[in-house]
From TrEMBL:
Residues 1-32 form the signal peptide. It comes from the Bacteria. The lineage of its organism: Bacteria, Bacillati, Actinomycetota, Actinomycetes, Kitasatosporales. Keywords: Signal. The keyword Nuclease does not apply. This is YncE family protein. The keyword Transferase does not apply.
Length: 352
């Protein structure tokens, strides 16, 4: 999203110096003052079942989703968490509503984004084929919006009061009014499986990674039909360059970051990063791209202009999501390596 730096989701787990040529420094503890200790890495156990996070500049809070249990098991344990980005302590934990009293199933939360303009948090409720809206001020659920089949990821276009969600099961991108919560647009591309999603707030164009088709789905304002652009194999996540002219996909199948020229509609580079590349984010200060690799348990820094890996650093097992904000990368893992089996949040300090 083009206001990523303002709002950029401060996600997860191991803080590491990722400057070119820098060495891996031992990870600090959650309470450590990195300015005083010199350690660029801070890790904290949060909770089991972590998925994603989103940073609110308005409230200086990190919102995280947690859901415990894999299909076909019923999810009865899910939380929307408000975390202090400085101490990495959980300040509030909100439980989604029960959807089945007999089983105790809840409206489990997975993807997450923040709308600071309306002071809300939006989540994808993948198991329930819906998205939900929560108040940042109170944590109260304000609405649940149905008919987003296998809702995966979600992004806010604050400039146009619009929230977009990817509907993986039916190949749709669904737009909602961020003020009224009403559906305002639906674009379906048969045979596709949209996963990660981002928006260029300057132009209003929306981009989704198509896991099934090794391509990007572009929906432009005023266009009557979506444009399909080649990408890597099995793309799960997508991010844009600062000027919005280049897209980067995290390709789970091929273990690569693919660089795509959006004007030309062509792949310009493919950079091997590690097994099971899961999520991608951009450091707009340096222009570097960060990717987490699930199978190899690393976060990799890529120079997209050179098409080269700057550095790969070990993370907790099963890293799931990465975002960049205010000179830090945040990686959420599903390692279960906390003292009580929690997954970890790692804050990574980046140098220019």
């Amino acid at each position: 999203m083009s206001s990523t730096i303002r709002r950029a989701r401060r996600t997860t787990a191991i803080t590491v110096s990722l400057a070119a040529g820098s060495a891996l420094v031992s990870t600090g503890t959650a309470g450590a003052d990195t300015a005083k200790t010199g350690s660029p890495a801070v890790t904290a156990p949060i909770r089991q079942g972590l998925y994603q996070s989103a940073y609110s500049e308005r409230n200086d809070a990190l919102w995280m989703t947690s859901s415990v249990g894999m299909p076909p098991a019923t999810v009865t344990d899910s939380r929307l968490l408000k975390v202090d980005p400085d101490t990495l302590k959980v300040e509030k934990a909100y439980t989604p509503p029960v959807t089945d009293a007999a089983t105790g199933a809840v409206e489990a939360v997975y993807g997450v984004t923040v709308d600071d303009e309306h002071n809300t948090v939006w989540t994808t409720n993948t198991r329930d084929n819906s998205v939900a809206v929560y108040s940042q001020r109170t944590g109260k659920r304000l609405a649940t919006l149905p008919n987003v089949n296998h809702a995966r990821e979600i992004v806010v276009d604050e400039r146009r009061d619009t929230v977009w969600a990817s509907s993986f099961a039916d190949g749709s991108l669904v737009a909602f009014d961020s003020g009224t919560f009403k559906e305002k647009k639906r674009v379906t591309v048969p045979g596709t499986g949209p996963t990660g999603i981002t928006v260029n707030e300057r132009t209003g164009s929306v981009y989704a990674a198509d896991y099934h088709g090794a391509q990007i789905i572009e929906v432009s304002r005023g266009s009557e039909s979506p444009r399909l652009i080649p990408a890597g194999e099995g793309p799960l996540s997508i991010a844009l360059s600062k000027n919005g002219r280049t897209a980067y996909t995290a390709d789970q199948t091929s273990g690569t970051v693919t660089v795509v020229d959006l004007r030309e509609g062509a792949v310009t580079r493919s950079v091997a990063t590690g097994g099971g590349t899961k999520s991608v984010a951009v450091d707009h200060r340096s222009g570097h791209v960060l990717a987490v690799n699930r199978t190899t348990a690393t976060v990799t820094v890529v120079d997209p202009h050179k098409g080269a890996v700057v550095k790969s650093v070990a993370t907790g097992a099963n890293p799931n999501h990465v975002q960049v904000a205010d000179g830090h990368a945040y990686v959420v893992d599903k390692s279960g390596s906390g003292p009580a089996g929690e997954d970890l949040l790692t804050r990574v300090r980046l140098r220019r």
